């Protein structure tokens, strides 16, 4: 498939939600392609275009064993005619994410956590080029300038009437694109999935302004694969009542955070709210395999 054909954000809808007293809308980016879904679709677009312009035949990237970025890269690379290599953190394992990546033709190489930390190291990259041949490198999590150029295009799917836009934050590349492309009256409210204040500074660097955005950091539940029963209860109940599935790593926490901010009076009822569903539903199978079938989707 050509890049132009693959990178059409088809099937995106805006769904009205009335849940736990809060009325808001959800931008369903999760409906874009099954595997290369959500925000990763936008982050990959200009990177793969550059890879094609540079006549690379292969893309290589880094990620954890349950990473949405890994499966999205595998899927998009395959659809656009690239071979792909995933450098995976930790011991060799099997899980639904990695099986799906392999099914998309991705070659997986497992490296120790120590070696994984060298992912930006020129010597390590050179070693990988000797092993696999020339490739286009996409960083872990997929965030770079071209990714942010891509996530700016999410704004073209957001009608002007919304003035408060909620989004989940990992590396912040998606939120940075939104901050760059939003309309003046719109506020971007990020919900961090990770522990630590570093994201505030990173976001400031990427967004190049203090204006128009804010990150809630107290709802990460201890980090990526951490959770509490109330998060899982919300995900299951939200799905039952709205039909919208949420992943436990990003969007479950974002909706939980949005509702908490609403309940504690941090969000005024005058706002017209749009929550961006960034996808990541592939992660549910792996999460359930690890923790018991607690997510009923
Ligand atoms: C990667 C990811 C995010 C975080 O995106 P960043 O650009 O790294 O902040 C949010 N939601 C989902 C589903 C993701 O896969």
UniProtKB/TrEMBL annotation:
The root-end lineage is: Bacteria, Pseudomonadati, Bacteroidota, Cytophagia, Cytophagales
List the signal peptide residues.
Answer: none
Q: Can you say what this protein is called?
A: 1-aminocyclopropane-1-carboxylate deaminase
**InterPro entries to which the protein is assigned, alphabetical:** ACCD_DCysDesulf, TrpB-like_PALP, TrpB-like_PALP_sf
List the Gene3D superfamilies hit by this protein, alphabetically. Answer: 3.40.50.1100
The coding gene here is dcyD
Q: Which residues form the Tryptophan synthase beta chain-like PALP domain?
A: 36-279
Which UniProt keywords are present, listed alphabetically? Pyridoxal phosphate
State the similarity comment. Belongs to the ACC deaminase/D-cysteine desulfhydrase family.
Protein origin, superkingdom? Bacteria
The protein's organism comes out as: Marivirga lumbricoides
Which co-factor is required? pyridoxal 5'-phosphate
